Amino acid sequence: MNAKTLEKLKILADAAKYDVSCSSSGSKRKNKNGGLGNAEGMGICHSYTEDGRCVSLLKILLTNFCIYDCAYCVSRSSNDVKRAAFTVQEVVELSINFYRRNYIEGLFLSSGIFKNADYTMERLVRIARDLRTLHKFNGYIHLKTIPGASDELVHEAGLYADRLSVNLEIPSEKNLKKIAPEKNYKEVYDPMNYLQEQITGYQGEKKGKNKGRLFAPAGQSTQLVVGATPETDRHILSLSESLYQDQELKRVYYSGYIPVSDDNRLPALKSPPLLRENRLYQADWLMRFYGFQAEELTDESEPNLDLRLDPKVCWALRNPWLFPVDIQKAPYEMILRVPGIGVKSARMIITSRKFGKLREEHLKKMGLAFNRARYFICGFNGSLKLHDWKPEVLKTHLISSTHQNFGQTSLFNA
Amino acid sequence: MTFLYNGSWEGLLCVYFQVFNENQSPDAIHVKMSSSVSLFSIGEEVPLIDGHAERVQQKLRKTSPRFLNRLFKIFLSEEAGREMLIYRLIRLQLQDINRALADFRNPDVRLSERIEKKINREVHRMHAFVRFQRTADDLWLAPIQPDFNVMPLIGRHFEKRYADQKWVIYDIKRNYGLYYDLERTEFVEMDFSMNGSLEKLSDEFLHAEEKGYQKLWQNYFESTNIKARKNPKLHLRHVPKRYWRFLYEKHPG
Known about the structure:
Chain A folds into two domains: 3-220, TIM Barrel; 311-413, no CATH class. Helices cover 39% and strands 9% of the residues of chain A. Chain A contains 16 helices and ten strands. Chain A has helices at residues 3-14, 88-100, 117-134, 151-160, 173-179, 186-204, 233-245, 274-289, 294-297, 311-318, 332-335, 343-352, 360-364, 370-373, 391-404, 410-413, and strands at 47-48, 54-55, 57-61, 106-110, 140-144, 163-165, 220-226, 251-256, 325-326, 377-378. A six-stranded parallel beta sheet of chain A has the order 3-4-5-6-7-8. Chain A has a two-stranded antiparallel sheet with strand order 1-2. With 253 residues, chain B is of the alpha/beta class. Chain B has two domains: 2-122, no CATH class; 130-250, no CATH class. In chain B, the strands form two sheets. Chain B has a five-stranded mixed beta sheet, covered by helices on one side. The chains are: A alpha/beta (414), B alpha/beta (253). Chains A and B meet through helix 1, strand 1, strand 2, helix 2 and helix 12 of A and helix 6, strand 4, helix 7, helix 8 and helix 9 of B.
């Protein structure tokens, strides 16, 4: 490897880092050919950057030359940045040599658009094909689906990649068109819908030539940029819900907008809206693992998530009549909805109570956030006798105890 | 009553074979120390008897493979009192199948779950933080220093992943490692003093491209960071400082 590759890596890793997806999980690809790599297990973060983000894949652009001028993107054509382009061979060698040293789980390859969508997509596919066929590489490959690429190329990508993603970026088409004049939703949804069809088709194939053949076994994902345009959280969450349900995406990523330019089509933010991004991830988690619907998580009158408290607590405070929940008898689904109780502790509660009554001292040691959960549960020896709590009072109390660690009893002494 | 065993998993299983078979109730179970003055040298020494360990394993596997797996991990945790904890868990499991995995009102069940979680986390960290260096004669070497004795749990993962390269993963604290020779993996003890220490292998010993790739990796790591999102607390929680020693990306220049 020479100095030129080093310089390219700097530019093209730097340009790729604003895509926040890092997952290397969900594939089923085994090392069956005695070659290199295995992607059947759970994802692994091989390192963490100083911003606390996982480094799992070699995340690079093939090139940051781009014919588009999307205001939110650091590689937009009007931006004055250094440009570079890898050769196919360079990407292959970097991937394999990083993988052999156990630096990475695989490759996440994206690209600026050069010439046109198909031309770009064809290069990405060629790299994946070389890795799989010439080099017997079974590590994880995440490819970007380039909006507007032909079905044939997208199909070929699915044959070699573990995961594919195409980013909506801006959570509404109206605003997308304002800041990314060359883009539209159709060119994003078309390949997404095509892939969904193919993925379902391959999975359902029980006989015939494609039986057992892998096609994007880790599914699809997308990214939404948050804070560059004025969409509400309510709008964003219902968009995500539709992407999970209709396009069967595995993940929707939220990326708090980081001002990468003084482009006047975008707001001037002092710092990225990281707390809002975090609340969106929490809400997303509640939809995927806790059985919540998007519309439960915000209110029509207050369409944004409360930054001071997590979305589950806020939901509980809007629905006081559902509480307290009887810890000895309530069904799993309801226990899961109690603030302070996670999937793991909910399961512990369910399996343990078959053997006898749960007591306060048990609950305190089962890894749930007891000091938070206690306001919402009953049926054990330490239950609070406070069935008529007022949401506003409890809310103020929870906010102050979250942020200043006030004593938990102050609510009752008052 | 105190029982002594030779320090191996098989040896410990022989103790359980005896106490359950003969209805004894142990007060303590220890590894027999060679020094005669040791506090831990008084007690009944249980010898390794062919077949006993396997019979205990079979019996436990039949109740639940996951349970047996957890006991082995508790053994590898090097946690004080692990032998008696395993004894109490087996007793609980034999009384009421699967209670030992499900009744979290019981402090031993909670403790065993916590220990297993700790071991699993360490195994996962080794999957993540092993860094191979390629030598001039195409061996891929990685020193590690895990908090617990997880070497017996990590071989399969690397065998599947690096099926076509010869590698050694070496625990420099416990002075033994795993060697994969393209066909099988076995435990080995090695002496690296000829080539510097395993951490600082001499340049002649390394492959000509090795330093170049370490540099590329450091470079990549630096470039992928987003300064506007800096969060040192979160960073340290994910990669505690004691793991940095073998991570090239944390030693730029």
